[in-house]
Amino acid sequence: MTNNQENIKDLINSKGIITFAEFMEIALYHPKFGYYNSFDNPKIGADGDFYTSSDVHPFIGKVLAREFKTMFEILGTNSFSIVEMGAGKGTMALDILNEINRYDPDFYDIISYIIIEKSCAFRSRQQELLKGYRQKVKWIDSLTELKDTGGFTGSLFSNELVDAFPVNRVYQDGNELKEIYVSLNNNLLVEKTGKLSTGALLNILKS
Fold first, then answer.
1. Residue 179 predicted with pLDDT over 60
2. In whole angstroms, what is the distance from residue 1 CA to residue 95 CA?
3. What pLDDT score does 175 carry?
4. pTM higher than 0.85
5. DSSP per-residue codes, 174-187
6. Is the confidence at residue 52, as pLDDT, over 80?
7. Residues 127, 21, 207: CA angle, nearest 5 degrees
8. What's the pLDDT score for residue 47?
9. Which residues are bridge partners to 140 per DSSP?
10. pLDDT given for residue 1 in this prediction
11. Alpha-carbon span 88 to 24, nearest angstrom
12. What is the secondary structure of 92-132 as a DSSP string?
């Protein structure tokens, strides 16, 4: 196995076909070969594949910092956790922490900042960027891990994350719903249609 394409082909050869969600999960998040886990090239910014708002200006992070303080005041609690899912390079986290630390040191003292990050490459970049806040920031792998530690009181947010979630692809053919799978044809990755992989998809579409 030399790259992710071969990894995907091996899986298809063993299973026959895979859902588009499986294909997307492997393509983006395979621990060694996935796009977001690769250390080879930058993903975000002028030298990467796309921009996010936090690459343009720290303004959004500053606005969020003030909103988190408002949420804390409304809750009336003694602690407040800011939980960011998929923090990318960590620039949004840096902007938020810089702003809170600057304008409200008392609020800064009580907050905790939790980053849910499954990409080893991004986590490494975040830890380097946020090294000045290492006593304030904690990294975990998933929402399940957050739940298992007793949950939190605060706010959970993300910036341009949902579009990177693996999805099943379904379309309507006459009166029938069909799913788009990924298969092989002459050792090339191709789309193939078939029945829904799970009845849960039908329930979701009906709801």
1. yes
2. 40
3. 87
4. no
5. TTEEEEEEEEEETT
6. no
7. 110
8. 60
9. 116
10. 44
11. 18
12. HHHHHHHHHHHH-HHHHHHEEEEEE---HHHHHHHHHHTGG
**Cβ–Cβ under 8 Å, residues 138 and 114:** yes
- Where helices occur in the chain by DSSP H, the ranges are 4-15, 20-29, 53-56, 59-75, 91-103, 105-110, 120-129, 143-148, 199-206
pLDDT (tens digit per residue) in 187-201 = 999 999 999 998 888
Tokens of 127: 């830890």
Give residue 137's Cα distance to chain centre.
17
Region 132-147: mean pLDDT is 91
CA distance 161 to 157: 10
Tokens (6 digits) for 46: 């002028």
**For residue range 9-26, what is the model confidence (pLDDT) as tens digits?**
988 999 999 999 999 988
**Sequence-separated (6 or more) residues with CB below 8 Å from residue 137:** 93, 97, 113, 114, 115, 130
Say if strands 18-19 and 80-85 run parallel, antiparallel, or are unpaired: unpaired
d(CA 191, CA 42): 29
Upper half-sphere CA count for residue 179 (Cβ side, 13 Å): 21
Query: Sorting pLDDT into bands at 50, 70 and 90, what band is 51?
Result: low
Residue linked to tokens 């996010």: 52
Amino acid at 36: Y
Tally of residues, the chain: 207
CA dihedral 93, 95, 98, 99 (to 10 degrees): -120
The DSSP secondary-structure symbol of 167 reads: -
